[in-house]
Specification:
Elements (H helix, E strand, L loop, with lengths): L4 E4 L13 H7 L1 E4 L7 H8 L4 E4 L8 H6 L5 E4 L9 H6 L3 E3 L6 H16 L2 H9 L15 E5 L3 H12 L3 E5 L12 H7 L2 E4 L13 H6 L5 E4 L8 H10 L4 E4 L19 E3 L8 H19 L8
Parallel strand pairs: 1-2, 1-3, 3-4, 4-5, 6-7, 6-8, 8-9, 9-10, 10-11
Helix pairs in contact: 5-7
Amino acid sequence: MAKFTVYIPDDAPPVLRSSAVFPELAARAELSYFDTLPDSEERLIERIRDAEIVLNIRSSQKFSERVFDSCPRLRLLSVWGTGTDHVELAAAKAHGVTVTNTPGVSAVSIAEHTLALLFAVARRIPQIDRETRAGGWPRGRFVELRGKTCGIIGLGAIGRQFARLAEGIGMRVVAWTMHPRPGDPIVPLDELYRTADAVSLHLRLSPETQGFVGAAQFALMQPSAILINTARGAIVEEAALVNALTSGRIAGAGLDVFAAEPLPPGHPLTALDNVVLSPHCAGITPEALEAGLRMSVENIWAFLEGRPEHVV
């Protein structure tokens, strides 16, 4: 196969360059590589204007109608990651651009992190660690999860993996999903909110799921309920979540994703003692990172060989 150029406009902070697949990519293709983020739509366009193939590492800039219109040679946008909410898919289709992603590669990592957040909130791990370091010896105030009900919203690869983990610690799993399979423990959404001791979100962000959980949903939940979100921040109405947490409408939350990322300094969530926060890192383990980067590169080879895989 003749050498061609792969444009990588946004490897920041760098993960691709240090991966095992990078030398293989560099051996088979010329690279137009940037290890800084494009700080505007204009800068993104500058970096990929002549591209036929783009390997997208970060979601800092939207691949909009204007971007596709400004890059008339573009044929393939290979996205590292599952989420494509930063890509205007209709515009890509209209411009004849194939968009691929890396589904499932982070499912185990994200499911494990989801369980870790649930334990951290239920057992108040950050608080008791802090108090113990300060010379205290805290007692009580913890929740045992065995026998409790775990409500999972979204049974994709991650949701199903988390369901297995929740069942593995003795929780009763109920679920709601847009595309159920026979045998799924499906219940109506209102029933899930009312009965779940923990509600875990595993939906894609789309126009249908933007603000999916808001004040009306929090009003249905038990005061002892815990919300876990490792999906996308915009799925939850953040102001309603802060209100539910400060008013005692729900007991706590474990959050890996936020409406604005990085989380702005002084954000109300940072002041709450019943919240555990992590910086959108649930899927960033060495194992998941390498598998995802390799798949994003292999999606390029498959496309060039006329057998596109993992097309969104």
